[in-house]
Amino acid sequence: MSKQATVIKNRKASYEYALMQSFTAGIVLTGTEVKSIREGKANINDAYCILENGELWIKEMHISEFKQGSYNNHEPKRLRKLLLKKTELAKIKSKLKEKGITIIPVQLYFNERGFAKLDISLAKGKKMHDKREDIKKKDQEREISRVVR
Question: Given the DSSP bridges, would you call strands 116-125 and 55-59 parallel, antiparallel or unpaired?
Answer without folding.
Answer: unpaired
